[in-house]
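Usage

Read records sequentially. Each one opens with the input sequence:
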Amino acid sequence: MTATQHEMPKDGTEPADEIVMRLVSHADGDPAVVERICRDLYRTLGRRYTTPAIRRGDVQAEYLSETIAAFCNDLANIAEANADYLQTMPRRIQRKRTKGWRLPAGAVCVDRSTPWGNPYVVGMIVIFPGLPGIEYTIRDVEEAVSFYQQWLAGDTDAPLPLAGPLPPPPNREQIRAALAGHDLACWCTRGAPCHGDILLPLANVGGAP
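and closes with the structure output:
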């Protein structure tokens, strides 16, 4: 993968574009898998939720299920319309310690040995700015990634490690300058939550973080 910045065609909203990028990364770069999953969700929501809601006259449930179903359909359309690009887009790679494994050419490490690593770790004790005096222990990787997304976005409610302050997060320009067009390598298991899935769309899709 060359260090060339890619732009998703504007077939949907930027948040939807970012979700499609993350889904395709988990699907080993196959947009057809993402399209099939999203269309299945669209049909399932219609059968199981929208139609029953209409029959029982639940307007709120009908509106919610129709909105979610429409969004799934939008995701499927984006995956279908951008299949050629999505097959060649940057993705997350799992680093391995197996003998003979090498980092693919052009890939950039984003683990904790680099400035791009997630400062939140499982078992870390944090405090929340709005809840002084209350300590909280990060339970799992998914939670650590969620807190990373808050920190990266500059959210003032992002938790603070009890052990000391975090460094300032990189801004969008720094992320794009260093990571656009590159596969990102981390130790996280394929298909599991990883902060690399947050960095990928920020580096390669236009718009605000």
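Summary fields computed downstream for this record:
- Residues 14-107+170-204 form one domain.
- DSSP finds seven helices and six strands in the chain.
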